[in-house]
Each structure stands twice: as C-alpha cells, then as structure tokens.
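User: Predict the structure for this protein chain, please.
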Amino acid sequence: EDAERIAFQFGATVPQQLQKMQEYVTPYAITFKNVTGLDVSGGEVGAYGKASDIALAAVRVYKAYPEIFDTTIVADNENTNDAASDIDFFLAGKTGFTDLTGGNLFVVVQKGITHKYAILILGSTENGRFVDVENIAKALLQLSL
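Assistant: Here is the predicted structure, written as structure tokens:
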C-alpha cells in the first residue's frame, strides 16, 4: 500500500508511475521493474540498485515527500515497522521484504535538535532487519557527533 502511495506521487497510471519513478532515480544506479518493488514472477526482483544509491534516493524521497512517511508515526495505524516503537527519536521508516531480497528497512532518526540520520538495512531477515536497525540507531545516538 505504501509503495502504491509513493507511485501515485509520480503519475496516474502504472506505466506513467514507473516511467516517472525511473526518471526520479536517474542520478542513481537504481532500476524499477514495477512500482511496488515486489518480486516479479519468474524469480526476478522488482527493483535493484547499489546500497549507497538506494540510501540517497530514499533520503531524497523523505525530504521531497515527507507525507509518505506519515503513516509510520501514527499511533492508531497498524505498523509493520517493529523498530518504530523501540527507537528513541524515530522520525520515519519504510519496511520491505521479499523472498529474493530478504528483509529491508529504511529509517530516519534524529539526534538533538538539528541532526537527522538515515539508516538503511538491506538483505537481512524478516525480523532481523528491526534488530539490525535498532542496534545501529542506538549506537549512533550514543556517539558524540
């Protein structure tokens, strides 16, 4: 559902969405096979790219379309991001899991008044991605940066 919300920011029809999404990530080495990123039939991933480019693109989307992440912090909304309630200063996050890519998680945390940090976990397990990001966030928030 969230992937489709993101896609509708880019166009009215699925082909338009896919084209605009691909144009949006032109500066990055990312390829979309569909608008959801879910595995394609035949054993092909729905989207792929370098971890650094995925992180940069995710931050770009977070800055440009923060409303996409609003459901992350709404208490009454069922949240698939188990890390949301376990991380202090959690601002936003998006989860992803497919058989081919494993557990993926992007979160934004805030330290102090002005410092925001993005954390990206790729290829973890379905539950391990939450533990991974929680450990990284706790360590990051304890550092004197």
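The chain has a mean pLDDT of 83.
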